[in-house]
Structure formats: structure tokens, C-alpha cells
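Consider the following assembly input.
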Amino acid sequence: MKTLDEFVQLFAEQFEETEQNQFTPSTDFRSLDEWSSLIGLSIIAMVDEEFGIALNAKDFRQVTTINDLYSIICGKINES
Amino acid sequence: MTGASSGIGRETAIQCSKLGANVIITARNVDRLKETLSLLNGNGHEMIIADLTDQEDVERLVRTVNGLNGAVLCAGKGMTSPFAFSSRDKYDAVFDVNFFAPVELLRLFIKQKKLEKHASVVFLSSIGGVELFTPGNGVYGASKAALNSTMKYCAKELAPKKIRVNAVNPGMVNTGMIQDGRFTEEQLALNMEKYPLKRYGEPLDIALGVVYLLSDASSWVTGHSLVIDGGITVK
């Protein structure tokens, strides 16, 4: 399973214009200028592709940082 | 009526039964299809369990029916997938249900002469992929675009048999397809505001459009995409 650092990297790859150094586990991703619902869809698709986990809208609503999202993914993997 | 276990399919079956039709409803889920059956008006209705992506089920379904005056091809699935992540398997999954299933079913109905003269065929299409192109909806939209196109070819080719073929193209409708957790309440509320009529559709809004296309009221209508969308596609 991908590590947190690998996840941050994969998360960053869905963006085009934001500097790599903006992405850390504690990044509040919605506050990034480039954040959009379309990028949100890409994140969901990336998580499905890389982790086999299907995030839904409710999962997103609960999180603020990249690390929060990673925790949710780990939680779902442990459940399955 | 395919996809009759819920949503638009269920409501259309109910409305048709209220107007005196004998309805044959089909879907995969036994409990939900039985529930639809119990909601139909009058008698003379039938339910057939079938998975329309299974060739044997489809052939069995076609063998069972005869003398159809109408067919409503409603079974469908949604998918949200940005283009970069939309691999072949995603297209296959959506096209199998949304395009190949209804097309093959209609093809067999025609080949085996299961539709009466003056029958009416209605495809449940969508504004998505046909009039409206929302990022993330490309796989679903492509399947509906293909369906819309085939509808028009069928309208031309089946006209000599006096069989009319049309589509209903809904906007967002309050059914299980949109209430499965893929959108937040906030997203839906924001999106709803863009609709001139400030609400999403209800299954009844769509069902009555299908009823119009099935009925003699539309006897000079074929090859038409009936948009029922609260005005969202008005430019």
C-alpha cells in the first residue's frame, strides 16, 4: 500500500499550476487557488485507481488536509 | 419496460398502467420489481427477471414476449470519471448497460417480429452527452450520445413498419442514480440553482413524456429527442 508521502505526490500530480512544495500532509487542499470540483473528481479517480477504494462525497466533506484523506483511505482499506 | 425496479422506469410503468396498458416490467432485482408490480393499476401485467447484459437472459426475455405495442428502454447506469482516468473497462461497463443492452434488445424484438405495426419505442437518453457536457461525465455522456444516434437511425429504418422510435432526454432527476452518495447535498443544491425552474426533475416529469411518446398523441413524431430538463439546456 502506498505511503503517505507517495499519496501526497499522487495528490500533487492532479494539479497543473501549483508548486510541488505546496503539497504536504497538512495542506488544506480546498484553500489552494487551483482547487476545483473537477480536481476533486480526479482525486477520487486517482484513489480508486491506486488504492482500489471508492471515496464518495461524504468522505470528502469530513476532511480538511491531505493527511485526513489518507486516513480515510487507510480506514476503508482496513474495513475491506 | 426495462429498468422498472426503480426510478424513472418504475414511475413510467405505473403511469402506463393507469392509462390502461398491460405492462411487462423487467429488471434484475426481484424484491424491487415485485414492489413495482404491486404498484401497478389493474391486472394483466407481467414481471420478468432478467439481466440485460446477459445474452441468454435477453434471448429468454425476447422469447417470452409477443405482440408489443410499445417498448421503453430505461435501464441504465451513471458513472463519474474524469477523461484521464476513463479506461476501456469503464466505458465497457457503462456501454454494456446503457447502449449495447437496449440496442440488442430492440434488434431482437425487430428481428423476431415482436413489435406490432404502429408500435412506439422510447429510449431513455439524457441531456448529458447530447446537449450538455459536464466535466467528469464523459463516459456516461458518450453512451447516451451513441444511444441518441441509434434512435434516429432506427426511426428512419423502422418507419416503413410504422414503428416510431424516439428518446426522452432528462436533466437531473431525483432517483437513485443521483442519490447514491456521489454528490453532496451542497453540490446538488448549488447545481439545482442553475435550473431556470429551480428544481430537479421528478420521475413523474419524465414518465409523462414517455407516455406522450408511447401514445397516439405523438403519432406524427419519430426520431425526436424530447428534452425534459427544467430549462437547463436553454442557451
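Chain A has a mean pLDDT of 93. Ask yourself how this observation constrains the way the partners meet.
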